[in-house]
Amino acid sequence: MKAGLFTYYSLLMLFGIVFIPKSTFAQVREPLKDTLVQDNLGNVEDQFQEYFFEALAQKGIENHEKAITALLQCKKISPQKSIVDFELGKNYKALKEYGKAEASLKKVLQERPNDKDVLSEIYEVYYLTQDYQKAIPVAESLAQHSVNYYEDLANLYGLTQQYEKALNAIDAIDEREGYSDYREALRNKIFSEAKDPELLEAYLKKEIEQFPDVEEHYLELMHFYSKQDEIEKAYQIAEGLQRRKPNSSAAHFALYKKYLTAYEDEKAIASMRIVLENTKNETLKKTIIQDLVQLVKEKPEYEPQLIKILEDELAPKVQSDEILGEYLVKNDENEAYNHYLNRLKNDPNNFDLLKKVIHLEIKQQKFETALKRSNSALEFFPTQPFFYYYKGVALRNLSKPNLAVDSFQEGLEYLLENKELELYFYEGMQESYKTLSNPVKVKEYQQKIEALKNKNP
Asked: Which residues cross the membrane (predicted)?
């Protein structure tokens, strides 16, 4: 495929997902079938052969205008030969004369309606012109030749708001090729774009009917009902799952909501833990953790259990670490500092972790440690202004205002479009010049601070 096509394909997007026909790139297109190529050329006049092979040669060097001229001569000699229309279609497409390309290829399809090479060419024409309605029946025909086109169909149906057909297309390829993160993301985007809760509800019910032993489907439907504030329906699904699997942990997702409502907090926490231990669904985990954090805010006596769950049950998960870290920062900075330090041991060059640790070291007035860690961070991130700022603050508090000014100035050179951090730099410079008894510079940076505060965002 020509590089120029990527410009067009990049425009074809569905719900933020790049909409490139995967089937186009799944494999190198096979040569034309013998039934199409061998059009009894040996029995036609030599002049036809001369023009035809001249057209192929010109197309090979991307001189499509000359190729078309030669092919039109072929049509004068043998107007009915489908191979000529096929080659004309490809050359017109290369020249972006899509109307002529479509007309030529449709002539070939009248004679060979199921030929996948011809279908593939006209399909690309419809993609390039974003004519989704015409592309759909062609993709449906191509899907009979290659399962890859089901993903294209899902995108096309989504673009034309045929959401049920889009979901069916995703299901069709899942059945043949198994689970795919890309298709799962596409499915979720379709549900989001459709803005039809009944569509998602029907899909989840169908999944349970088809795969009654997969607990995750029950869990997702319970989560759906919870988001819709239809708690009783969520309980009914949980009860149905328990009848099928008396020891099911997934049912506890609904049960913990019920326990919270009934103020049976210990039972609620026990059910939360069971779900967290047994589900892989990160969305559900996040929901549970948020509910548990809210419970602790209302009843601080459960804080040890929250911390234990986050540390013991979800420690390998980055998301849970972030939740725990944020919670600790708000409630216990020393615990938060130790938590981030432990994570930093396993990931010493993590940019976000370094920022959090040095920030807490500054707040806790561990200036020597903050200075040392800032210098180490700058060895790996020499153009990150955050670490120059932290270094400057540490130096100023270690009674080295001249060196602090140097660090602030160097950091400002790397600063791009960050008004808040720029303000911190100016305030750091001002404080350093106060220590140096330089009223001119103090006034200069006061003016910079006021100008920046008054500047429109």
From this structure: none
